[in-house]
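Q: I have 675 residues here and want to know how they pack in 3D. Can you give me a structure?
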Amino acid sequence: MNFNMNFNMNLKYILIGLLGMNGAAVMPQAIQQEVVEPTENALIIPMNSQNVTTLFDPQNSVSFDEERGVVGTSNNLTLDLGNIDFGNKKYDCIWVEMSYQNPVSEDTKFEFYLDDDLVAPKTSFSVPLNIAPIDYHTDRKPQSGLYFKNEQCPYEAITVFDLRNNDNTSKLIVEAAQGVINQKRGEVYLIIEDHHIRQFEDAYGIGKCNLLRDEQYNSYVKDGKTYNYSGLASFMKRYKNNFSKMVLWTKDKKWTWCMALMICAQEGAIPVTEDIMHFFQDELGVNLPVEDIRDKWSNEMEAYEWVITEFVDKGKCHPTLSFSVGLREDSESNPWRLYDYAVATKGLIFYLEAKEGSEGFNMIQKLCAHMKYPIGSSVMGYGAGDDGDGLNKATNPYNVGFMVSDFYSNGSFWCSYPRKAFQQRKGQAIEAKPGKIYVSLVWSDGDNIQFDANHLYNMFSAPGRGDVPVGVTMAASLQELNPFLLEYFYKNLTPNDELMAGPSGFQFIYGDSFATAAADPDGKYDEWLAMNNEWLATAGFHTGCLWNTSHEERYREYMRTCGLQGVYDGNNVSYRYEKGKNGEGVVSISQGAHCWKEGDVYNYLTGFKPSTQKPVFCNVYLIAANYGGLDGYERLKRELTRLEMYLPNTYEFLLPMDLCATFNKYLEEHGGKYE
């Protein structure tokens, strides 16, 4: 294979011709030889219309001229036919003679030949290492003490309620009530989406999900409105004697929902709207006392001052957990799911705008200050307002990390599973060569536990998974919070999968602002770093992502203490190299472009040019919510195949841990320099 200094591929010749109805070839004048018929290496494309359109790279660089035939240019890597307008002429087919041919599609069957050597583009993107898999089980003790745990319930005592077709308000009510029932043991499980059945059967066996719903209330009519209360009715008939009272709240004052949840958590009650209260009383014969909180406080801030006095300052709230889980603007059509775990934990619950300087922001900080949260504490759910991630700005100074989890279902059930630690193989280095581009690929959003339990869970059964090396970000906290789910991913790993930490390790934090409200901010950050090391180690992770840490010393201290092989920097710093506390090198490279749709990977990676002086290392950050889904892996395979057609055998795709090991080896061989 011949390369010139700027890595253009030298083509010996390019001959383009057209076959007319009589079989005569029309040749471009630039070619000084006449080709009467196609050679054995020619590409022949049948003509079904006046136009010929290629599948890839349509740059409209080729056109038809009645005197000269087909004329155009090549980028020295691919010959682009574009959209060819043949005017009034009609042809049976077009034939293309070229020295470098490669399959472009199933229809055209391009085969590209380089100058001297036949270079077949890769059709397999598996990790280029022959490493025996290891058992994901380990004797290491899992981390503990940060998340609520209850007792695991025997299968025979578990009740499963089907809420899939229930109206959304009734789902909120049952989810909150589930948390009350599950405070002592994981007894109630809810089916809100179809995959919740599959998850239950993954744990207990096919056919073990016995759904309860009262069909009598499939179409309950009240005041001219029709409701589906089938799951709600079934649940309340089973558990109506388990509640101390009903707490009446109103959607007109959405913050009363948060107040109702905290009262129910503390007093074993069930939250109700007026409609559902009457349904319980009139249809189900529920005679529980009612506490009406609709006008208990004059405004939202007064309500939270009451929470501080009645719950926070009296030490009634969970010491490490808080929840941002109110009613978002779309709660009627797309309600959240985390309410059961919030109620089960008796954690502080709020839903306040986290915009800096706002009344809500100040109240969040006041709540955190009164709670005196220790390092490792978490706020779960999602932030209110336009910048949900901005919740970090309010809570981080008070030692509280963020764990996105708004649509996380059945948390009060899965937390009953025993804590568990895991392991996976360490990354292995390959020889890094000049002229090669070494690429890792990472799925986003695994730090979000609702994403792990929903979207990523479904993606793990998608076609094509295991065909392409990809790192999957994951929450290390699952070893205590939901060991079943983390084990599901480990149990189903292929050699082309890696589990890694999302930002910023075992919690999502902004490193620059974390623990800055503490008396000893540097010491407190060191405490978080030590905890991060331990949680990542027993989760089995060797790489991770880091965001919003631009403070130089905090960043380097993270690298020196994390115990990882590599860190993917969300601020897109080119590279860093540090020695970890175990004496091994730790590398940091840019997280890379955020790829949202098909074509983004190709466009981003073709921007990297091979070098004759050194290997090139890069990462691609795949936005799982958009780029992923059930066709995400197949989409990715198409992009990598397209890249192979562009520069065959130039890109080497590695798992993140293997890329970091390879980069680390290269840096150590070159004195820590990458120049």
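Q: Anything worth noting?
A: Residues 14-98 form one domain. Residues 172 and 203 are 25 Å apart (CA to CA).
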